[in-house]
Amino acid sequence: MKNLNRWAAMVLAVVVAATTSAAFAKETPEQAAKEEKIRADIPLGGNFEPNPQEGVFVAAGHGLNVVASRDDGKTWEPVFSGYPGGDHGRWAVWNSVAYTDGVFAIAAGWGAPGTIIASDDGKNWRHLADGSRKPAKRNQKPYDMKTTMQMIGAEGAFIAPLQATPDFGKTWHEMSPYGFRDAEGNRVKVNNSHPSVGYTDGRVIVVGDAGPSVYSDDLGKTWVPMDVKVEPWGERGAKGILGKDGVFIIVKGDGSTVLRSTDRGMTWTAHDLGVKRPASRSFGLSIVNGEFWVTGENAKASADGITWRELPKSTPSGRIAVSDKGTLINVSRKRLSILRSEDGENWEEVYQYSKHPDAHGGAQGLADVAFGRVKRISN
């Protein structure tokens, strides 16, 4: 039986590898050149002028499909589009819409050159990097970023795993996952596979497939490997980390438990949660009115990460952002629309769009949304 299981696992691995290779093989040299021209035509950044005057929601999904609302989520308009894509490639967008101190930024790219665009008004977008950035590889361009599934904004910095800028793209701090050594001086590789990023009280934690992998106490300037065991961890699968008021929570697996830390991620305790993982496989983790919210087939909220209350059955799965007026906006990778609520119980559809005919390889719903105040634009 063991040999049979091993054989089945080998066959499955070959099938997955072949499928993945086939997906990437679809890109012709002509298509790659076309996509690279689109990236090259995006203006360079490094010259943002934050002026947080006007509240704006920004949401994004695969293809770097970006939409924004300037009227508290009532109406929406497209503000940027890269190229039709899916879960992999230059234009893949996951939980990577970030905001800090008057500037939005969105990271795209998974398994291909990464791109991070940014805006100080929510309408006009440029590379977050300027022309002076020197990438790790010699043949890379200044705007070739590390690919990531999540990026956050905190205290004026944009932070992704092992990559951060404290000044809206003028300066970059970057490390390699192979650039760490143990106490004996041996090289150590950190596991940042399918990363999720959380922040609270000055600490950033990156969670990979095997658990918490690295932390930073200087907004991503330097990183330290985490030798931390988290139980129960279980199988590789969708996960997320969220931080608030000195508390980190991790949700993964089937959603029966939540993992919680109050000592900056060094020890974790398990608590009952009871949120069923959604069809998209990714739980929606958000901070709403000072509470942790976890959405899936059902949804729950908690102020402390220990005691969880059931949210209304109408609460949609996906990511939720809240405006300074208390309005909630929800997006989901499995739905081609945006939902709005003023009370957290009654939701209305305020925006709908169609899948691009050339999009392939993944759900085309908007993956992430954020609210922030930016520069007012003239009509």
Would you write up a description of this structure?
This is Ycf48-like protein. It comes from Stratiformator vulcanicus. InterPro entries: WD40/YVTN_repeat-like_dom_sf (IPR015943). Residues 1-25 form the signal peptide. The protein has two helices and 30 strands. By secondary structure, the chain is mainly β. It has one domain (59-374): Methylamine Dehydrogenase, Chain H (7 Propeller). The strands form eight sheets. Strands 3-2-1-30 form a four-stranded antiparallel sheet, with no helix packed on it. Strands 4-5-6-7 form a four-stranded antiparallel sheet, with no helix packed on it.
The helicity comes to: under 10%
Give the CATH H-level superfamily. YVTN repeat-like/Quinoprotein amine dehydrogenase
| Approximate shape | globular
CATH topology: Methylamine Dehydrogenase, Chain H
Structural class: mainly beta
How many E strands?
30
Number of helices: 2
Strand numbers in spatial order across the main sheet: 3-2-1-30
Report the end-to-end length measured between terminal Cα atoms: 69 Å
How many structural units, i.e. domains?
Answer: 1
The overall average pLDDT, rounded, is 89
Low-confidence stretches: 1-25
Q: What does the largest sheet look like? A: 4 strands, antiparallel
State the CATH architecture.
Answer: 7 Propeller
- Rg (C-alpha, Å): 20 Å
Under CATH at level 1, the class stands as: Mainly Beta
Q: How much β-strand is present in the residues?
A: 35-45%
